[in-house]
């Protein structure tokens, strides 16, 4: 069974850092797919945060996180990471990773990140 499992979330103070992980199992190969991080807060639409393109590994970021977040992948571990630095209260959300896009995309269940003093 193909699965994506996020981890590494939690509570952090403003200005702090967290690293989220997205482990793929059951046939999902992270280098084969464009892997994307999204986030969502209650009452708001899901927001695209960052992605790392299949094969090339080129990364792309939303303006709101550019310069603070870094997406990367470890092919040997079949895991994608989101390093989040200089976190702001506005970054508080449930973070999801996805493999692929559109109706064929596979999603994790999400992990909560709370930025608060």
Quote the distance from N terminus to C terminus: 39 Å
| Succession of helices and strands | EEEEEEEEEEE
Uncertain regions spanning at least 5 consecutive residues: none
Quaternary state of this entry equals single chain
- Our estimate of the beta-strand percent is over 45%
Largest sheet: 7 strands, mixed
**Class by alpha and beta content:** mainly beta
Rg measurement, Å: 13 Å
**Helix amount:** under 10%
The best one-word shape is globular
Counted by DSSP, the helix tally is 0
The overall pLDDT, averaged over residues, is: 94
Count of extended strands: 11
What does this protein structure show overall?
The chain has 117 residues and is mainly beta. It contains no helices and 11 strands. The strands form 2 sheets. Strands 2, 4, 5, 6, 9, 10 and 11 form a 7-stranded mixed sheet that branches. A 4-stranded antiparallel sheet has the order 1-3-8-7, with no helix packed on it. Strand 5 and strand 6 form a beta hairpin. The chain is globular. The protein starts with a strand and ends with a strand. The relative contact order is 0.31. The mean pLDDT is 94.
Please name the defining characteristics of this protein.
single chain, 117 residues, mainly beta, seven-stranded mixed beta sheet, four-stranded antiparallel beta sheet, 11 strands
How are the SSEs ordered, and which strands pair?
Elements: E1 3-7, E2 10-12, E3 18-25, E4 35-40, E5 47-52, E6 59-61, E7 69-74, E8 79-84, E9 93-99, E10 106-107, E11 111-115
A few lines on this structure:
The protein contains no helices and eleven strands. The protein has 117 residues and is mainly beta. Strand 5 and strand 6 form a beta hairpin.
């Amino acid at each position: 069974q193909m699965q994506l499992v996020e981890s590494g979330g939690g509570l952090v103070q403003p200005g702090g850092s967290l690293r989220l992980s997205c482990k793929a199992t059951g046939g999902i190969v992270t280098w084969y797919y464009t892997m994307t991080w999204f986030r969502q807060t209650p009452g708001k639409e899901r927001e695209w945060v960052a992605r790392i393109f299949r094969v090339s590994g080129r990364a792309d970021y939303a303006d709101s996180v550019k310069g603070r977040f870094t997406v990367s992948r470890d092919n040997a571990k079949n895991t994608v990471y989101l390093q989040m630095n200089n976190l702001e209260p506005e970054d508080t959300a449930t973070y999801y990773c996805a493999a692929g896009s559109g109706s064929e995309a596979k999603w994790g269940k999400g992990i909560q990140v709370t930025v608060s003093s």
